[in-house]
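Researcher: We're teaching a course module on how sequence relates to structure. For the next exercise, students receive a sequence and then see the predicted structure as tokens, so they can try to spot secondary structure elements on their own. Here is the exercise chain.
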Amino acid sequence: MSWSMNEVEALARKAARGAGFSWGLAEEAGRAVRWLASVSLPGPETLATRLERGSCGTPLIKGAVWTAEAGPLCPLIAGAALADRAEAVAYGDGVTLRQVAEPLLLVPFVAAIAAQTGTALRVDWPEGAFAFAADARGASVSLTGPADVRVSAGTGPDLPLLACQLRYVMPAATSDLLAAYAHRTYAPDTEASRLSGAGAGLSDND
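Model: And here is the predicted structure for the students to work with:
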């Protein structure tokens, strides 16, 4: 099924919230997944994988090397932490993030930092590389982790230009899974809500 970018973002946001992320991080997840989908990368599928694998760690920030408190490092929490330190990331000597789960979800945060600061930045892991300057370029072989990720200044070797699109064809299995998580954010139906006008109440309209 073909989804607009607004629909992709809304579904990802609700799914992340339904999986237990705060509303703030759920908003970040929605924007990250939308960015990936807009450049023909499997953001929805990668988010679905992340949610199914359950919790992962928040970063312990020790200078230029970040590690997780326990288990793999959550790409959404780590991405938000990078964004909070945009100037240091853009103008520093680089950051290494150890064992990031689903590193593809970290990429939109680096793209946003490059755009915000007007600097050229790279994000690399053993099976993926992206560069952001005047345009967005990248190549990714492995979409899942965990993997060590390096964020650094510059563009490095030339990479393919990422192609933009206005709609995203999402596999039914992915949309169904994300919708199941999103459903957890809905208030349960009650007798009081039905009588107050939510639904047909006691009347039969058929």
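Model: If you want an answer key for the exercise: Residues 193-206 have pLDDT under 50 and may be disordered. Helices lie at 5-18, 23-38, 43-52, 75-84, 86-91, 107-117, 172-183, 191-195.
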